[in-house]
User: Which sequence fits this backbone?
């Protein structure tokens, strides 16, 4: 067991899907995996391992924000030997053409967080997805006939920003969408020699004002879930 994950050694697969919402982790496990076992309930952050088309895959909630995700990422890699981490999350679009329910695959993750500035003594590190994972997922999406957007996203530490117009600067520089985890995920995977990739479903659009409910975010983003699992199967 690790500090925050109550799993025995060997009970977590080498490939882990990481939704922020632990209830989404439970939904994925119950809907898509067979012979599923819950290996973690510590702090209500559910983790499951099961079989997808006969291959072991785990699903672990990470919580919201880079601080929370960093805890689970470190422990999954360092204590349980996880090799591939695929974040399956939601994001807010910065552009009208990146519509609600569209898929966004994050090639890189800009951030307003100070975590990496502290880590690199004030210098700027560029958190980037693993190319093999990215190539595998985009090829799988093409094979499945799915449309998606690929590019830079913003991993922010601030959900309720003081300046309601702050997002427009990021949009002007081609950032597709905003979420709260991926810069930390990509940085820690690189540090520990693992592979990481984020795929998100657009849950709301800052340019148009359209949004989805919390229940929809938990249970209806199944296209993203299927693509992540098919990618995991190909690894």
Assistant:
């Amino acid at each position: 067991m690790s500090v925050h994950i109550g799993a025995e050694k060997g009970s977590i697969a080498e490939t882990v899907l990481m939704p922020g919402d632990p209830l989404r982790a439970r939904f994925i496990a119950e809907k898509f995996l067979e012979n599923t076992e819950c290996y973690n309930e510590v702090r209500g952050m559910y983790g499951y391992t099961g079989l997808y088309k006969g291959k072991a895959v785990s699903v672990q909630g990470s919580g919201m924000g880079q601080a929370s995700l960093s805890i689970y990422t470190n422990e999954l890699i360092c204590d349980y030997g996880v090799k591939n981490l695929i974040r399956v999350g939601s994001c807010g679009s910065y552009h009208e053409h990146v519509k609600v329910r569209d898929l966004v695959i994050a090639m890189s993750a800009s951030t307003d967080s100070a975590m990496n500035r502290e880590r690199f003594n004030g210098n700027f590190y560029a958190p980037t997805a693993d190319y093999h994972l990215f190539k595998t997922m985009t090829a799988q999406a093409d094979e499945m006939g799915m449309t998606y957007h690929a590019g830079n996203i913003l991993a922010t530490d601030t959900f309720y920003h003081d300046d309601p117009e702050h997002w427009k600067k990021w949009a002007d520089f081609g950032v597709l969408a905003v979420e709260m985890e991926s810069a930390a995920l990509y940085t820690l995977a690189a540090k520990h020699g693992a592979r990481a990739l984020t795929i998100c479903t657009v849950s709301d659009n800052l340019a148009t004002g359209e949004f989805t409910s919390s229940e929809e975010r938990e249970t209806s983003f199944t296209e993203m879930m299927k693509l992540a699992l098919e990618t995991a199967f190909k690894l």
Observations:
- The first strand starts at residue 15 and ends at 18.
- The helical segments are 22-32, 66-80, 115-119, 131-143, 167-172, 182-192, 214-219, 222-234.
